[in-house]
């Protein structure tokens, strides 16, 4: 049957925890795949905040989101996903390191899930724009402060690209040093493929 | 909700793959917990082979198995687990490194699952008796040769005890070097607890 991929495993962890009506954060919007995934889980009464430092990313994500909404609302009943209406989504052209200040105060301690998918924007004109530990580590701290108890933070790490190995190691060290009274951490990876993306997941206690 | 423990995650992987009527192997019987787990999954028409180099381990496992069978067959209907009759079990006082020779030839390429739970027998008089790479690595090779396509081999590694770290590293290296055409490998661990048990799982292609 095959082991589930790192991305599927990440989604399964989120799916089991994020409830309809909750707040979720996509810390690295990119082309918007995680954003749509979170908006489907949080459903109509939920809220999703998306962060990216590139306008091109937010534009792509907005288009993707609009297509999803059209499919939900369209006249073709077969394309409607019953009860799966999307949460409201707010996109912010800001560094994820600022997420604690950027969100309304009522989010603190109430966020169900935060997803990080590190590295650079696929297909971007300037692939030198990428996440680095200088902003990623404060962003992880901010994300953890926003989570509710039992809320989850996932980080998919890309050790293969330039600087990605350093960033992955920094994230893994940060997570491994979290006190057990504050959070639990697991990793899921493919030992045959040390350069492949892998997951660090953090559940707030 | 909490992440599933390494032992639960291991059992989930096996449970999804091992089918009623199949053959399974407990490569490190110990007190028999995995043995009973496998016998329940393989059910009445299945077969489970258990290996251990210590008679004390096999004795404990046999007792545990007998208790389980009594509970299944007993007059108290509440204690019966419907349809969960145990597979036939054969216990072998031999090194798991010899499993390919020790099993009937009809097992080759037909085994659904092999479980390794490395280290020493809990509560044993002589805790110097423990698995080592010298026998563990040939045992893993033998196990892989016995598995059917999509069959699974799990190894729970104990880096904390004397020699356990060396053994864990050896197993991890063995698994990480398996060609992708032969097998897929994942690891599941707790980065906050580098000395805690962790899982290497191998699915035959």
Please tell me about this protein's structure.
Two copies of one chain form a homodimer. By secondary structure, the first copy, chain A, is of the alpha/beta class. Chain A has one domain (6-204): Vaccinia Virus protein VP39 (Rossmann fold). Chain A is 35% helix and 22% strand. The first copy, chain A, contains six helices and seven strands; from the N terminus they run αβαβαβαβαβαββ. Chain A has helices at 6-17, 33-42, 55-73, 99-102, 133-146, 164-176, and strands spanning 23-26, 47-51, 88-92, 111-117, 147-157, 183-189, 198-204. Chain A has a seven-stranded mixed β-sheet, with helices on both faces. In chain A, strand 1 (23-26), helix 2 and strand 2 form a beta-alpha-beta unit. The relative contact order of chain A is 0.17. The mean pLDDT of chain A is 92. The interface between A and B is medium-sized, with 26 and 26 residues. Strand 6 (183-189) of chain A pairs antiparallel with strand 6 of chain B. Chains A, B: Residues 62-83 are annotated as: Disordered. Chains A, B: Residues 62-77 have a biased composition (Basic and acidic residues). Chains A, B: This is SAM-dependent methyltransferase. Chains A, B: It comes from Saccharibacillus brassicae. Chains A, B: GO terms for molecular function: methyltransferase activity.
């Amino acid at each position: 049957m095959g082991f589930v991929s790192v991305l599927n495993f990440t989604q399964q962890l989120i799916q089991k925890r994020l409830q309809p009506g909750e707040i979720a954060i996509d810390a690295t919007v990119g082309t918007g795949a995680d954003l749509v995934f979170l908006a489907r889980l949080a459903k109509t009464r939920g809220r999703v905040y998306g962060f990216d430092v590139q306008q091109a990313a937010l534009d792509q994500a907005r288009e993707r989101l609009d297509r999803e909404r059209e499919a939900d609302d369209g006249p073709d009943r077969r394309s409607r996903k019953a009860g799966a209406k999307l949460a409201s989504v707010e996109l912010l052209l800001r560094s994820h390191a600022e997420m604690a200040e950027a969100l309304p105060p009522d989010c603190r301690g109430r966020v169900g899930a935060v997803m990080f998918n590190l590295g650079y924007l696929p297909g971007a004109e300037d692939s030198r724009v990428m996440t680095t530990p200088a902003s990623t580590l404060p962003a992880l701290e901010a994300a953890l402060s926003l989570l509710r108890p039992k809320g989850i933070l996932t980080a998919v790490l890309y050790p293969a690209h330039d600087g990605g190995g350093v960033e992955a190691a920094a994230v893994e060290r940060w997570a491994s040093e979290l006190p057990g009274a504050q959070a639990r951490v697991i990793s899921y990876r493919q030992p045959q493929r040390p350069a492949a993306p892998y997951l660090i997941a953090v559940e707030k206690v």
